[in-house]
Amino acid sequence: MNARSSTSIFLAGAALAALLLALLAGLCHLLLQPGLALYAPVLVRPADWFFALLIATDVGAYVLLCLFFLAPVPARAGQRIQPFLRTYARLLFFLLRHVVPGKKRQKRLAHAYIDYLNQLVLRRHLRVRPEKILILTPHCLQWDQCPHKITRDIHNCRQCGRCPVGAILALSQAAGAHFAVATGGTLARQIVRDLRPKAIVAIACERDLISGMEDVMPLPVLGLLNRRPNGPCFNTDVDLHALRVLLETLTGERYERT
Ligand code: SF4
Predict the structure, then answer these.
(1) Which of 3, 35, 44, 220 has the fewest CB atoms within 10 Å, i.e. the most exposed one?
(2) What pLDDT is stored for residue 1 in this prediction?
(3) What is the pLDDT of residue 81?
(4) For the segment 116-142, what is each residue's pLDDT rounded down to a tens digit?
C-alpha cells in the first residue's frame, strides 16, 4: 500500500475519532446542563458557548487535517498550522487506539498515522542542509554478533555488509548527514539534544517511531518502519532505497546507490 492510500486510512479513522470527540463534548454538555441550571444558572449560557466552540473547533480542525493533505498549502501557512494539526492528529490517534479492535487493525492504523505525520512534513517542501539532518536508528539493526561498539561511535562500524548499519553509514557519509544508533528513547533524546538537527530521518518499529515522532515535536521527523524478518528487536532490517529517497527529498540532492 502506498503512503497516500495509507494516509487516507488515517483520515477515515480520524473522522470516526473526531465524531467521537464531538459526541463526548455533547454528552458532557447534556450531563452538566441540569446541574448548572439548578445551582449556577449564570453559567448556563457560557457553558453552551464553551461546548459549541469545542465542537466547532473539533469539526474545523478535522476539515483542516483533510485539507492539508488534499489541497496545496502555502508554505508559510503550512508551517504555522503544523503544530496545531500534529497535536490534534495525536489526540485523534490516541482515541482511535482505544476504540479500534484487534492487533492487526491497530498495526495498520499505526502505519497510517506514521504516513500521515510524514505527509505533514513532506508537504512543507523543506530544504535542509545535509549537516543539519540526523539519521537515527535503533540498535537492533546491528548484527547481533558484531563486536564493534557502534552506539558509542558509529565510525567503529567496519561496513562489513553483515547488517544494514554499514550501508546507512556509507549513505550518511555520502550525503554529509549525521548518523547515530540509539539503544533506547533516553539516548535518542540525548543525541537529538546534543546534535540539534533541523530534521530527523528516524528508523524504528511502530511504537518507538510514534513516540519518538511525538516527543520531538515540532522538529520535522520522517519516519521509516524497520523490517523484522527475525522477530522484534533482533537483527532487523530497513529499506535502504526508501531511506535514500527520504534523505534526497529533504536535501534536494541525489546520492549514488551505496
Ligand atoms: S556492518 Fe558494521 S555494524 Fe554491521 S556487522 Fe558489519 S561492522 Fe558490525
Answers:
(1) 35
(2) 62
(3) 81
(4) 999 888 888 889 999 999 999 999 999
Give the separation between CA 21 and CA 191, rounded to whole angstroms.
36
For the chain, percent of residues with pLDDT exceeding 90: 77
Please say whether the beta carbons of 116 and 10 come within 8 A.
Answer: yes
Closest atom of ligand 1 to CA, residue 163: 4
**Grid cell digits, residue 170:** 556509507
Question: How far, in Å, CA of 163 to CA of 137, rounded?
Answer: 13
Residue nearest to atom 4 of ligand 1 (CA): 163
Cβ–Cβ < 8 Å for 52, 28: no
146 Cα–ligand 1 center, Å: 6
Residue whose CA is closest, atom 6 of ligand 1? 160
CB 224 within 8 A of CB 155: no
What whole-number distance in Å separates Cα of residue 67 and Cα of residue 181?
A: 36
Nearest Cα to Cα of residue 81 among 68, 66, 72: 68
pLDDT of residue 258: 58
Q: Please choose, from the candidates 53, 69, 80, the residue with its C-alpha nearest in 3D space to the C-alpha of residue 14.
A: 69
Distance (angstroms) between ligand 1 centre and the Cα of 161 equals 6
Q: Is the CB of 96 under 6 A from ligand 1?
A: no
CA 21–ligand 1 middle distance (angstroms):
48
Of 214, 196, 183, the closest CA to residue 131 belongs to 196
How do residues 36-45 score in pLDDT, each as one tens digit?
999 999 999 9
Please give the full DSSP string across 180-202, using - where no structure is assigned.
EEESSHHHHHHHHHHH--SEEEE
CB 106 less than 6 A from any atom of ligand 1:
no
What pLDDT is recorded for position 215? Answer: 86
